[in-house]
Amino acid sequence: MEQLDCTGYDEAIEELRQREYPMLQGTTYLDHAGTTLYAKSLIERFSADMITNLYGNPHSASNSSQLTTRRVEDIRLRLLKLFNADPEEFDIVFVANATAGVKLVVEAFRDQEEGFWYGYHRDSHTSLIGVRETAAHHRCFASDEEVHQWADSEELDNEVAGPGLFAYPAQSNMNGRRLPLEWLQRIRQTKHSGMYTLLDAAALVSTSPLDLSEPDNAPDFTVLSLYKMFGFPDLGALIVRKASSSIFDRRRYFGGGTVEMVVCLKEQWHAKKLDTLHERLEDGTLPIHSIVALDAAISVHGELFGSLRRVSEHTTVLAALLYQGISSLRHGNGLNVCQVYKELSSTYGDASTQGPIIAFNLRNHLGGWVSNAEVEKLAAVKNFQLRTGGLCNPGGVASSLGLAPWEMKENFSAGQRCGNENDIFRAKPTGMVRVSLGAMSTLKDVTSFVDFLHEFFVQEAPPMDTPPVTPLSTEPPTTCQLHVESLSIYPVKSCAAFSVPPGKAWEVRREGLAWDREWCLVHEGTGAALSQKRYPKMALIRPSIDLEEGVLRIKLMGALQDATSRHEMTVPLSADPRMFSAEDVYRESNAKVCGESIQAKSYRSTDISYFFTQALGVACHLARFPAVGNGTGSMASPRHSKAHLQKYQKARGMHIPGAFPDACLLTPGTVVSKPILLSNESPILTISRSSLNRLNELIKAEGGKAAQAEVFRANIVVAQNLDCLPGAEQPYAEDDWRYLQIGQQYFEMLGACRRCQMVCVDQQTAERNQEPFVTLSKTRRFDGRVYFGEHTCHLPMGDTWSPLVQNPTIAVGDPVRSFGQDEADQDSGLWALVS
Ligand SMILES: *Cc1c(COP(=O)(O)O)cnc(C)c1O
């Protein structure tokens, strides 16, 4: 790796190594063996318990039931002790997650006759913010200063006669900032009994101890996500200070084991359990096996990682290094690469003010923002588990990013949603990147993450002003002709390709090549179309079109053969309505593609569904899109309806292979959205063999595995004729193509195709690789987005009676002619079509 421009960071790592920091000694902390060892030990301990003991539903006299009750009570005590909470003073209620703990508290406040007042800090997680909808009056505290002023005044908010509840996170889930715990005591001292406190410790306790040894200074209610501490089991907890538990007396709901007796026929009354708080609040059967697993988790976690204090020390040191590494990255021109969202009052390295989480955004060398979606894709390929977006923390994110409420609303109206790709609006990011460290994180994780940012986001030298050197050719390129090297269709969306046999004339329609993406697989539960991004094994489902037999033939390849009893199946090409699910004939089911609903009809045959369900291990149906016009009509197929087609306007200098966008295209601080298709759906996708060769040369030079054309889901591969001289190849010439003539048909180039990590699924083995996405990201990334291939659509000719119009076809081997805008203006045949 090249020398990072951050001496402080390198020195700190060296010093750390020399100092032999105890937490980093031993294999547990130096490699991922720690994670594996933890998971293995925990599951083995739990499974040994499950195999040896029988746990019955509690509340009966049987041995198995008694055993459960005993274990659960022991574990309750053990968990309380983990937080130094005296069982005389505190009770613990098992819930599904931290949010369920909040809801239980809220239920009690909501059932107070006079309603309640609710205050919450800006840094709150959405689980705390939603509480305001149930309160008679609520207030969001925009700063610590506002909290101090309010906490120090003895007045209760007099808008509401009922009690008050003040909630805040012990640690922000956005940037890991740790908020002062002394507020709890301060509020209790000035406000007395009318005001309660709710501490959201879900983020804090995953890497920090929480000390409840002094009940007077402790929160009235504390919520935890135990899975965030231990990874497993999926369980949460609510710790209640017993002195404040009377608030639950007014809780109206009861259920399961929380009542002693219920009468519901002639009279309606019930007697609530009175013994312990948790008995009153744990509605329904406890997740007893999860609670038993918690016992194993506490033990194994303690044995491997020591106390929560040690975890805190370990993560604090690592986070300080990571912060140093991230914040000292510089572009070649000296500009900062990362904008870190850290509170002024917090310091990395100081566990009382800062947890091991770093939230940031990246800038390019011109000061423009790098899209979160792009960072997330690259991180996924490099196997870093990070999170991006709004992070369920709207207040913290808005204040860090300087987004006013009107801007957030406007972004929302403009289509911005949590998790979508358009994450930069009006030159401001709408989310951020978050990395979190835990007990199992290592020094190597830190250094390799900083290296990763350096490798992909640091631009060493300012981009050249001069265009790249085009390969010297002894002959002018015009004499070197192009042809169709291959034609492929993808009969079942996201499954393997079918190659059109050489010489076979294949029909082109306005909505694409015949039979391309005619079918899809839809999830039985959600109705969404399945894709290789989530189900890479779809690459091993190999459909073919057999026009002689009139069937779509589907073969299962490779590993899928091991999972299935049947390896081949056929479906008639004719769309016989009787084959489709009865209600679908009248009320068409929705197949969701790219989040938008389009209509598809699912096959009713259970045999067909079973075939795909068994192959992929996910309950799904085969569905077919309804037929559209004969190819000369103007109606686009519904399967492509979400292709937000935009005319491709050339911006000179944009398409420099291997370079970042030219300075003229980006003004510092802004990100220009290019007139390029955002969707991965378009009628036809064309790629160039020369470009693929160039890409593969670069991949191989780095020791990577060359990419096959299939990973790009191309329909048409255009290549130079064999008699072209070596060196005459023109990689990425397609960036400047405006139209193509293939055989006797004309096509329009709609824009470059944006890529995601789906191109990394090997179409032979269904395994995920890093390539070609990594090399593409380094060489074909414009404005933070990665492009390869061109969206293309057929230009049908006017209404003549010639067979060329009625049955337009292309074939492998057809000659190809490309037109730039200038050439297009001069070609009369083409001109007649598009004018
Ligand atoms: C994760 C988290 C939550 C939500 O926890 P769940 O267990 O998902 O309900 C709430 N607050 C903070 C600070 C968190 O980190």
- Distinct ligands, ions and cofactors found in the model: pyridoxal-5'-phosphate
The strand count comes to 35
Give the overall pLDDT as a whole number: 80
Could you say which overall geometry the principal axes of the C-alpha atoms support?
A: globular
Radius of gyration: 31 Å
The termini sit apart by: 54 Å
Main sheet makeup: 7 strands, mixed
Describe the structure.
This protein is of the alpha+beta class. The protein folds into four domains: 9-21 and 311-457, Aspartate Aminotransferase, domain 1 (Alpha-Beta Complex); 34-250 and 277-305, Type I PLP-dependent aspartate aminotransferase-like (Major domain) (Aspartate Aminotransferase, domain 2, 3-Layer(aba) Sandwich), CATH 3.40.640.10; 519-624, no CATH class; 641-834, no CATH class. 29% of the residues lie in helices and 20% in strands. It contains 24 helices and 35 strands. The strands form nine sheets. The protein has a seven-stranded mixed sheet with strand order 1-7-6-5-4-2-3, sandwiched between helices. Helix 1 runs antiparallel to helix 12 (308-327), helix 3 (33-52) packs across helix 11 (288-305) and helix 7 (144-152) packs parallel to helix 8 (182-191). The chain starts with 6 loop residues before the first helix and ends with a helix. The relative contact order is 0.09. The structure holds pyridoxal-5'-phosphate. Pyridoxal-5'-phosphate (PLP) binds at residues 97-99, 125, 127, 169, 173, 200, 202-203, 225, 236. InterPro entries: Aminotrans_V_dom, MoCF_Sase_C, MoCo_sulfurase, MOCOS_middle, PyrdxlP-dep_Trfase, PyrdxlP-dep_Trfase_major, PyrdxlP-dep_Trfase_small. Sulfurates the molybdenum cofactor. Sulfation of molybdenum is essential for xanthine dehydrogenase (XDH) and aldehyde oxidase (ADO) enzymes in which molybdenum cofactor is liganded by 1 oxygen and 1 sulfur atom in active form. Keywords: Molybdenum cofactor biosynthesis, Pyridoxal phosphate, Transferase.
